[in-house]
Amino acid sequence: MLLDQLRTLLDRHARPDGTTAIDGVLISRIDRPSEPSASMSGTVFALIAQGAKRIGVGDRVYEYRAGQYLVASVDLPVNGHFINSSAANPALGFGLTLDPASVAELLLRAEPADLPRGGGIPPLGLAVSTASDELLDAVLRLLRLLDEPRDRGVLAPLYKREILWRLITGEQGATVAQLGLADSSLAHIARAVGWIRDHYRQSFQVEDVARRAGMSVSAFYRNFQAVTAMSPIQFQKQIRLQEARLLLATRPGDVAGVGHSVGYDSPSQFSREYRRQFGAPPSQDAARLRALTPP
Q1: Strand order of the sheet with strand 91-97?
Q2: Per-residue pLDDT tens for 82-111?
Q3: Strand-pair partners of 57
């Protein structure tokens, strides 16, 4: 079976940092239970070959298992973890960074009738589907190049393009296709997401961000909520709290300073929102994280 072959390759080539010899290709191998951790999703195609993964963004929860994949078309703040993984049955996953320029090139080469039709509201920022045999086969051929360095430089770009094409013509085609459309609603929201992520410390008016995205306030708010499952202010808060958690790992005794550095003027508000997000006050959570980190 294709999945069995994928598991063998993923298990053999997994590295602790998740990278591979092929640019943009990632491998996950998790052999122990893990708690949900906060991160940015990136724009990525992620396929599970063994085990399962659960991801939360805003008020939505996604779970995908062996033979299923997730597409992230916008770089979103997420909480996620592999579930039920163990040394005897590790979770194994494949990831491919989605490049908007590569998507745009395929869209230009394709016949219009072969492309997915988009609606008025952009697709969700995250979506889960079952992988077709054609998609699994393309992933398998790309992974085999890890054992064939002579062929890698020539064939890897071709197999990546095939994977993108299988995604564009698959169930989540509208989501992937909008990555390559410079004037799509998704592209406008992605610009706003990038601006908020880069300026998360400063306060903003939604009207100003809508103007930067080139949309009316009502259309911007509606589309932002549809793509990210959050309001712009909630999105900013997620970024602030994720950054604060990273800072607290190195500055556990400076809760007020960390809160201020990520944009909170009120220490009590920072502590309250941090506890609501992570289930413990900042100082207590920092101590727990440090205890879990190997020396």
Answers
A1: 25-30, 91-97, 44-50, 68-72, 126-130
A2: 988 898 999 999 999 999 889 999 988 888
A3: 60
